[in-house]
Design brief:
The protein folds into 2 domains: 238 residues, Beta-Lactamase; 105 residues, no CATH class. It contains 15 helices and 12 strands.
């Protein structure tokens, strides 16, 4: 029994557990892998990162503009000789760089330099070797902004010069059109922006002839993200031509590219974000706890089935053992069982055994008092007493009927006879103090008629009954009719 209980419930738990697992898993995958939602997420992520990068550039631009108008900066570019201007410019650049590292802790600048109106370096931090270098030719937007007395920001990515900077610049406002440039490593800046926004890696792409190339990326950008961005180059370059965010699908991921409109002319640098294949990382594993609950359910089924099986199997085994003993001849054995569910069954089996064995059931309590009222069986036993002899006479002190009385008994109509006999029997019973509420007239008449048939076969002629009381009990005497 234990094994059947455990097996049935275990199958139910397994079916429900697996069904719940696959339904929830499929629903989670469907909800987190929507192409529309993934495309929109990639678009929002790249827009957020692009905006953050441009805000950081604007903040740095305003800061360097404030340094460009300080007296020390103006004094450095007002020296009489080129050498003096170069030395003074280097000193100013070193001082500005030290202050910038304290101001921009998330992506500390690595370059500060002073340039003239033609875009040539007057002096830079930490070195005098690059004085006179023409960077205006490499970055014409710098030369144009300084010559017009305007500040600006740009992405400097050059393989020839090994530059990878987010550059901001501002005019010094002197008589000769000098300017100050602050450069922050683009990889560090992308890492800071990535940490503050998408958090999944950023890629910076720039035009390369008719194609685009990856120029920089945040420090924690996975290799698969860069590989996916490289595969989407044909669609990413549309961001430069349209000036708008573009999205495309590569495999089960979405790629979004946003042009950096606030840096330079907005057509030579763009940010790229690659969305994961799911809105929630590890979405497919979200349904796994259901399997854990299913395993726990199986454990509970085994434990509960073991105890429940024992609760039912042990008393059933005791009942089987007792019945086997009765079959083998131990007719005095009875089931002794105190059980909430099987106790009633055991009691009925004991009653059945008592009836089959002809043993009267003990209906008295511990003090010998009767615990139940007389039953119909008691009524039939009393009616079954027949002490009459042939011809209506008999020994033992029973009344003798005269021929006239016997003739009158035979002539009495049946309905009147049975009604009178029932009244006399009930009256005699009550006189002895016995309970008669359970004896109905219909039951009495049916029993009397059956007794008359049996007695008639015995005497060979019709029989009617008379009520007789012997002082201790009420009996019915059979009177053969002539």
């Amino acid at each position: 029994m234990r094994n059947k209980i455990i097996a049935v419930n275990a199958v139910i738990v397994i079916i429900l557990g697996l069904l719940s697992f696959f339904i929830v898993r499929q629903q989670v995958i469907s909800a987190t892998s929507s192409a529309t939602l993934l495309s929109e997420r990639a678009k929002r992520d790249v827009q957020g990162a692009s905006a953050r990068l441009q805000v950081d550039a604007l903040r740095a631009e305003r800061w360097i503009a404030s340094k460009a108008i300080e007296p020390a900066t103006k004094d450095a570019v007002s020296r009489a000789t080129p050498a003096a201007r170069g030395d003074a410019a280097t000193a100013v650049c070193d001082a500005i760089l030290a202050q910038a590292k304290q101001q921009f802790t998330s992506s500390p600048p690595a370059l500060v330099m002073v340039v003239d109106s033609q875009g040539k370096i007057v002096g830079r931090n930490g070195s005098s070797l690059s004085r006179g270098d023409d960077i205006g030719t490499a970055y014409p937007l710098l030369k144009a902004a300084i010559s017009k007395g305007q500040s600006g920001a740009d992405v400097w990515v050059s393989k020839e010069r090994s530059d990878q900077f987010l550059a901001v610049y501002a005019p010094i406002r002197d008589d000769h059109g000098h300017g100050v440039v602050l450069g922050m490593p683009i990889n560090d800046e992308l890492a800071a922006v990535n940490e503050a926004t998408a958090g999944r890696g950023l890629v910076l792409v720039v035009p390369a002839g008719d194609d685009v190339r990856i120029a920089a990326n945040s420090a924690n950008t996975p290799e698969e993200t860069k590989a996916t961005a490289d595969k989407a180059k044909a669609d990413v370059k549309n961001a430069f031509s349209t000036g708008k965010v573009v999205t495309t699908q590569v495999g089960d991921t979405f790629v979004a590219a946003a042009p950096l409109e606030g840096l330079g002319d907005g057509k030579h640098a763009a940010l790229v974000v690659v969305s994961p294949p799911s809105l929630i990382e590890g979405a497919q594993a979200m349904a796994l706890p259901i399997l854990g609950v299913m395993v726990l359910g199986l454990i509970l089924v085994v434990v509960a089935g073991w105890f429940l099986g024992g609760y039912m199997a042990t008393p059933i085994g005791d009942m089987e053992e007792t019945l086997l003993a009765v079959i083998n001849g131990q007719t005095d054995r009875r089931i002794e069982l105190d059980h909430a569910e099987l106790g009633g069954l055991a009691f009925r089996i004991n009653q059945l055994l008592n009836q089959l064995m002809g043993i009267e059931e003990d209906t008295t309590d511990d003090q010998g008092r009767v615990s139940k009222a007389p039953t119909a069986a008691d009524f039939r036993d009393a009616m079954a007493v027949d002490r009459s002899g042939g011809g209506g006479g008999g020994g033992g002190g029973e009344p003798q009927l005269s021929p006239a009385q016997i003739q009158a008994l035979a002539a009495e109509p049946p309905a009147q006879y049975y009604a009178r006999l029932y009244r006399e029997y009930i009256t005699a019973k009550k006189a002895l103090g016995e309970e008669t509420s359970h004896i109905t007239e219909a039951t009495f008449n049916t029993r009397i008629q059956g007794m008359e048939q049996d007695a008639g076969q015995k005497h060979g002629r019709a029989v009617r009954y008379q009520v007789h009381t012997n002082g201790r009990e009420v009996v019915l005497l059979a009177v053969p009719l002539p």
